[in-house]
Amino acid sequence: MPQSDDTPLSLRTERIKRAGEKQRATTQPGFPATRLRRTRMQDWSRRLVRETHLGVDNLVWPLFVIEGDGARQTIESMPGVERLSIDLAIEAAKEAFELGLPAIALFPYTEIGLRDEVASEACNPANLICRAVRAIKAEVPDIGIICDVALDPYTSHGHDGIIVEGEIDNDRSLEVLVRQALVQAEAGCDILAPSDMMDGRIGAMRAALEEAGYTNTKLLSYAVKYASGFYAPFRDAVGSGAMLKGDKQSYQMDPANSEEAIREVALDIAEGADMVMIKPGLPYLDVLYRVKQTFGVPTFAYQTSGEYAMLSTGAANGCIARDAAIMETLMCYRRAGADAIFTYFAREVAERLKAEA
Ligand code: PBG
């Protein structure tokens, strides 16, 4: 079939790669000259031919923050993960820094009484997340701090945007999201990570940040975020699950689509995203791979709360080899193209990597 010039870039890249693979297959001598097991025989040899590496630089540790002092709360659906008051979050950040983790991601549990229809608290410069950012920056200045930009921890209906006449209104939501982004930038957040999936938000935020002088505040766009069944434990953790009315299908992506993922990423790069995120991770490694191959930009993936719960409870029930499966899943993210992975296992994996080094 003749190739037309308007073949999408992703498809052309794929074709060139496939041609290369075919050639390699035909020039390779057969058995017994080729025995692929030879290089698998010793640990040193496996290390020598390993194609992908996982290091502490590839990990981001998400933390849930609550009000209080010396307060920690367990999250039932995420065994081993806790909500921490700011003083304890500072300790966690110190630990993360000492382990060499490049960044942490902060998510607030907003007091229920502070949540309203229009997410007013999201734009309060003295809200929990802004106080947490300031406090951590003061004590641990050299760790990167990432903040979600989305309204779900602040709305009384649990949605990421503002509802107008029964619909999540894109442009009305943008106004509030931009204000939220600015108060977080002002607090000292290094990377703003819009996870709201409104159209046009990266461009709107970039413009507002430039105008306000935050030229080095980075944008990590959750460009490809699916309407997924893997977020339930996270919604427990930030307290939005019980409040959520309806679903998020009018803004988060259809799990059936990956062409659309390419369009989402292309738009966000054009609007000024410094990095893009694919979420969830494990069921969407094909999308992650395509995005990294097509654009070659810094590409992150989120090992979501549902993936964490699946691994943790599976291991607790004796069905999964816990430590091996954790390392395997993270390596698979890397192999598919993730530069960094948001994972609730980040601290323990960093500890393991340090012990092995
Ligand atoms: C909020 C947000 C969600 C997650 C990150 N930011 C949940 C959602 O969109 O409902 C999910 C993270 C996880 O499951 O670990 N916009």
Could you describe the 3D structure shown?
- The chain has twelve helices and twelve strands.
- It has helices at residues 9-27, 43-49, 86-99, 128-139, 170-187, 201-211, 232-238, 259-271, 285-295, 305-316, 322-336, 346-356, and strands at residues 59-66, 72-74, 82-85, 103-108, 144-149, 162-164, 167-169, 191-194, 218-225, 275-279, 299-303, 340-343.
- Helix 9 links the parallel strand 10 (275-279) and strand 11.
- The chain is globular and about 70 Å long.
- Bound molecules: ligand PBG.
How much is the average pLDDT? 95
Question: Could you state the order of secondary-structure elements as H and E?
Answer: HHEEEHEHEEEHEHEHHEHEHHEH
Q: What is the domain tally? A: 1
**Largest sheet properties:** 8 strands, parallel, barrel
According to CATH, the homologous superfamily is Aldolase class I
Determine the N-to-C terminus distance.
52 Å
| Widest sheet, order of strands | 1-4-5-8-9-10-11-12
From the coordinates shown, what is the CATH architecture? Alpha-Beta Barrel
Which ligands accompany this protein?
A: ligand PBG
- Assign the CATH class: Alpha Beta
Radius of gyration: 22 Å
Give the total of beta strands: 12
* Unreliable residue runs: none
Proportion of helical residues: 40-55%
CATH topology value: TIM Barrel
* Mass-distribution shape: globular
Quote the beta fraction. Answer: 15-25%
**SSE-based structural type:** alpha/beta
Number of helices: 12
